[in-house]
Design brief:
323 residues; alpha+beta; 5-stranded mixed beta sheet; 3-stranded antiparallel beta sheet; 9 helices; 12 strands; globular
Length: 323
């Protein structure tokens, strides 16, 4: 669908990779955008939808990741990508929060993580009944971790942060500090002491009502929400799926370049170019899938009670789903 400046929406008709619009041409009306036939590459449009990017972001993504069937984004394809109706859901609604001048910035990957939460969400996730999401963003690379829970107690935050620290160490990083705002569970002396005793990690608290201290996490949160809302609109799922959609968005965001960087967040953090397996392409959130049951769980051929395959929808990836 193309959306025009006056609010009207017209459907695109696709025939053999050609896109058409049926409409009346209005002469001498420069404000009225009309595309008669736009030749666009199906793979480019699919990757733009998978990664929730505009044409400029698609070009950067194609250069930063290996293993995708996308070499060049043509001008015509750029025009179609930039007019996709879901891009309006992906646009940030507020000016990004800047970084704080009260702390020295990290000088290497994994040195400092900026932490923030999202929730509590009104509708429990149908995947794990979670209503809260934890976030930790590497200040140096903007690489993000996310986790979910049914609450946001000191214990749940500690378990999430411990997983982040262990994974960071597995990638050769020594975590020195976790930076929080002054939410009650985060300014807890118990959490501070446990992180120091077990992992040797310091806690940094930002000044009261000073959101710039966790600006990287707030910006990341906003991006994830925009990407997730676009995914839910596309697959027509309710807001109960918001948290799993945001988790999947974090995985894809890590494959993108941050700001003017030419390397993806994942490459800057892990030290290697992400390689996606062409045999297992990223699916759009909410895609209908068929999966084979384990052999011992299958019934006889033709069984309705114990079928050989079941139908479901794609709501995320396992941690080892892609490199």
């Amino acid at each position: 669908v193309l959306r025009y400046p006056d609010g009207r929406e017209w459907p695109l008709i696709r025939r053999n990779s050609l896109f058409f619009i049926r409409g009346k041409l209005v002469p001498y009306a420069p404000h009225f955008e009309t595309s008669i036939a736009v030749k666009a590459e199906d793979s480019a449009l699919l990757w733009a939808s998978r990664m929730n990017v505009d044409s400029a972001g698609l070009a950067k993504f194609a250069d930063a990741v290996h293993g995708i069937d996308l070499k060049k984004v043509t001008k015509h394809t750029q025009e179609v990508v930039d007019k996709l109706k879901f891009h309006r859901f992906e646009t940030s609604r507020a000016k990004p929060v800047g970084s704080t001048p009260t702390n020295a910035r990290a000088e290497r990957p994994g040195q400092v993580f900026i932490c923030d939460g999202f929730g509590e969400h009104h509708a429990p996730s149908p995947v794990d009944a979670a209503t809260y999401q934890f976030h930790a963003i590497c200040e140096y690379t903007s690489y993000g971790y996310t986790g979910t829970g049914t609450s946001h107690t000191v214990q749940e935050w500690y378990e999430f942060l411990s997983c982040v620290i262990i994974d960071a160490e597995a990638h050769g990083h020594k975590v020195e500090a976790m930076r929080f705002d002054r939410a009650p569970e985060l300014r807890s002396k118990d959490l501070e002491q446990r992180l120091w005793d077990k992992h040797g990690v310091r806690v940094q608290l930002t000044p009261r009502r000073h959101h710039e201290g966790v600006g990287a996490a707030e910006v990341n949160n906003d991006i994830l929400t925009r990407m997730a809302e676009a995914d839910l609109q596309r697959c027509q799922k309710g807001t109960a799926f918001l948290l799993p959609a945001r988790t999947y968005a974090q995985f894809r965001l890590n494959l993108k370049c941050a700001g003017t960087c030419k390397e993806s967040r994942a490459q800057r953090y892990k030290g290697k170019v992400p390689v996606l397996d062409p045999a297992r392409p990223l699916l759009l959130f909410g895609t209908s899938v068929l999966f084979n049951e384990e052999k011992q769980a299958r019934g006889p051929k033709g069984s309705l009670d114990k079928p050989r395959a079941n139908e479901g929808i794609m709501v995320g990836l396992a941690s080892n789903g892609h490199a």
